[in-house]
Amino acid sequence: MNHDLSPSAEAAWLVAELWERKLLRSGTEQLGGTDQSMGLELAEFLARESRFSSSDGRQAVGRRVLRILDRLSSEGSSCGRFTCGLPGNAQGRSFAWLGHRLIWWPCGVPTNPRLAIVSSRLGRPVERRRSWFAALRAACMEAECRNELLVCADKTAAERFVRRSAGLFQLPLLAFQLARPIHSASEWLLRCDQQRSAIVAGPDRFPPSVWPAWISPPLTSDAGGAGPLQDRVVFAAADRIFACLVRPSGNIEQLLERRIDESSGAALPLVLAVAAGLVSSPVSDRLEKRGAKLLPIHV
After folding, report:
1. Considering 127, 136, 146, 160, which has the largest number of Cβ atoms within 10 A of its Cβ?
2. Beta pairing, strands 210-215 & 102-105
3. Selection from 55-64, 113-122, 210-219, 257-266 with the highest mean pLDDT
4. pLDDT band for position 130 (50/70/90)?
5. What tens digit of pLDDT does each residue of 269-294 get?
6. Mean per-residue pLDDT for 250-277?
């Protein structure tokens, strides 16, 4: 690397290295202008965060970033990779819902169609919500028939139950882990590096049916719109959505409306569980008119 490079030229150099090493990829195999600009913003962000202002310091940071990316993408597995946002069918939604973010897939990127089982907060006591668990069971049985992958994210209302159900029904699981709000992109990258051995080969190794995905902090000021990030991640990543509980005017209803609004007339595979205390008639009627399928739940 030339010691006289400006920060923007350094960013361009770093991006070129990332693409050449195939460490930073878009959700598709075709790398277009959007993907290149995404990489440029990532590199500029890392350069701005650097504590070093000299060209020697920036060069050291560039080398350190590349060493970390090399390790994260090859430690014990040839499947580890990074993507610019969500891959596959979700790529078009990724920026609008999540902003510009990097995702590390230490065990590779699963290819199954994705089912998000979503729910408003359950309240207590959870054990008395028999209809909700019946809806969860119905969703898992559908996923098994369709060869779908369940999707969950940290601290969503349904997360712990989706994780448990994936094991009980022997379904593959895509588990998103979000960066802490206090983390910068470089701190997130270092944390991924620190965790790589445990995730890939250590005692905390994920079961073969679990696909972890670590999402970085936003790389630009646009963080992807309103609503809790963990819910937006699940909604954006899903090919199909099964809603077990929807509170009127709550976050889940608003995100369902948003997915429908953005479907552009195409059919959105959305299933609403209908039973007392799950999805109210006004909500289910409104969403049914917009294409949602209603599934009566009998307990």
Report:
1. 136
2. antiparallel
3. 113-122
4. confident
5. 888 888 777 888 888 898 888 888 88
6. 82
Report the greatest alpha carbon distance in the chain: 71
Establish if 266 belongs to a structural domain: yes
Q: Is the dihedral of CA 271, 275, 278, 283 positive or negative?
A: positive
- The residue behind tokens 């014990």 is 76
Tell me the average pLDDT across 191-217.
Answer: 73
Map tokens 């969403």 to a residue: 287
Q: Which amino acid is at 41?
A: E
121: its two tokens: 């907060």
Do β-strands 114-119 and 240-245 pair in parallel, antiparallel, or remain unpaired?
parallel
What is the C-alpha separation between 59 and 52, in angstroms, rounded? Answer: 9
Does any domain span residue 52?
no
| Residue 83 exposure: Cα atoms within 13 Å on the Cβ side | 23
Q: Which of 122-126, 130-134, 136-140 has the highest mean pLDDT?
A: 136-140
Return the axis-axis angle of helices 7-21 and 33-49, rounded to nearest 10°. 120
Residue 89 is encoded by which pair of tokens? 């069918």
- With b for 16 or more beta-carbon neighbours within 10 A and e for fewer, the 222-247 pattern comes to ebbeeebbbbbbbbbbbbbbbbbbbe
Degrees to nearest 5, angle at CA 111 with 109 and 113: 130
Number of domains in the chain: 1
CATH for 276 = 3.40.50.450
Asked whether residue 35 is assigned to any structural domain, the reply reads: no
* pTM (predicted TM-score): 0.79
Q: In whole angstroms, what is the distance from residue 71 CA to residue 111 CA? A: 24
Look up tokens 């920060």; give the residue.
Answer: 7
Q: Which structural domain range is residue 238 located in?
A: 75-296
- For 44-63, what is each residue's pLDDT tens digit? 555 554 444 445 555 565 56
| Residue 47 covered by a domain | no
